[in-house]
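hey all, quick one before standup. I had two proteins in the batch that finished overnight and I want to keep them in one place so we stop losing track of which output belongs to which input. First protein below, input sequence then structure tokens straight from the run.
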Amino acid sequence: MVVRADGKILGIRRRDTGEWQIPGGVLERDESIHDGVRREIVEETGALVQPVRLTGVYLNLPRAVVAMVFRCELVGDTIAASTEESAEVAWLSSDEVAARFVPAFAVRVRDALAGQGEAFVRMHDGVSVLNMGATE
């Protein structure tokens, strides 16, 4: 998750589903986690970033997929209007994130903005956050 100095959050509207999310993806074989974070954000937004800290770990129960969210610093000031993977790339306010993202993805932004200590651990069903075993 990338936050600009004015508090706006870097978001994408996915080409495949049309859903709004923060940039992300899957690691490639033999790729470090931080290298994967940087690569995915460049591919989806054109932005150059540096991962700073892990802010949350999120389990999508139906898909059995674990996502890690890192708060990142923006290294350059350029983003693309769209990319091969993103129909739209935009700087969004917290209110716009809450309105556009499904709750299971909006919570990742809230956690990254709020967290200063230990990373949040949450589970979701792809849309809604589930309270079973969550740590806050």
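OK second protein, same deal, sequence then tokens:
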Amino acid sequence: MTHSAVATDSLTAALDGLVDRVPGAEVAVVLSPDGLLLGRSRHVEDQVAEQVSSLVSGLYALGQAAGRVCLAGGLRQVVVQMSRSFVFVATTRGGAILTVRMGGDADVGDMAYEVALFAAQAERALPVYLEPARTVTGGISGAHHWRP
């Protein structure tokens, strides 16, 4: 199993703790904003980590686009519900992306709370990513915004 150069024992332990603490949680993965794998919980194989990274990068990009188009602010969380599982994607204050997959019979409210709590406390084990200048200085020029 290969590990990211950024992954630390404390990050792996934190992800394992999240999966162990929340009934129904199966795997947890943390990515950089550009989709690089930073860490993963135990039992996440290389192929699964790569697939999750690709999937989450796309979800994250769609969520960011929705925030810009709807003038809704920065992306905080994306939740995907399938027939037998959920995928939670949340951004940390430092810009990293946390993803947790849980079984379909798990308590979604508990998971949403735990994901938000983890994302808020993750700075100790994660690097900080700066936002691109265009979002800091007022948005994207020429963008057409949808107003409900």
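Flagging for whoever picks this up: The chain has one domain: 9-126. The domain at 9-126 is CATH 3.30.450.30 (Beta-Lactamase).
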